[in-house]
Design a protein that fits this description.
Strand content: 15-25%
CATH topology: Muramoyl-pentapeptide Carboxypeptidase, domain 2
Structural class: alpha+beta
Radius of gyration: 15 Å
Number of strands: 4
Number of domains: 1
CATH superfamily: Trafficking protein particle complex subunit 3
Number of helices: 4
Shape: globular
Length: 155
């Protein structure tokens, strides 16, 4: 049982706190650890829900991601779309991501959030996944868009 249960503040912290931790960590050691932390979080969420290897369809994944990471969940982001294809690849679109909160950039920057969805999809499918952020709200795009697919070297 955790010692500090934060009875007044609860389990959430501001997007600003997450943003600063992400930015400074990336400045010090690069994107890898931030992406890895997100991946571990995504896998952990799926495991905690007992959904490892559940192979949910796109509609159920969307509902899961909306409930888990949206306004009623961790408030990481608002997932707007999840699609998959026959190759096992997924596209996840979201808005209001914590990683790009009040940020302006010329390149995609949501390593932690990308990692969360890579890890979650890896846990649901049982397949090692890799991902790329192809659009970012911080760069002026209407959504953050992640393309997540089976890791080619490990297929």
């Amino acid at each position: 049982m955790p010692v500090n249960q934060r009875p007044t503040l609860g389990p959430m912290v501001s997007a600003t706190c997450l943003q600063q931790m992400r930015v400074y960590t990336e400045d010090l050691v690069g994107r890898g650890p931030v992406l890895g932390a997100g991946r571990m979080r995504g896998q952990g969420v799926i495991s905690d829900l007992g959904l490892d290897g559940s192979r949910l369809d796109d509609e159920k994944l969307l509902r899961l991601f909306v409930d888990t990471f949206g306004i009623e969940g961790t408030r990481l982001c608002l997932v707007t779309e999840v699609t998959s294809d026959d190759s096992g690849a997924y596209v996840v679109r979201l808005v209001e991501g914590a990683c790009s909160h009040q940020m302006e950039t010329t390149e995609p920057m949501c390593a932690y959030t990308l990692g969360v969805f890579v890890g979650a999809l890896q846990a649901v499918t049982g397949v090692v996944m890799q991902g790329t952020e192809t659009a970012c709200e911080g760069a002026g795009d209407p959504t953050c868009t992640f393309e997540i697919r089976p890791h080619r070297a490990l297929i």
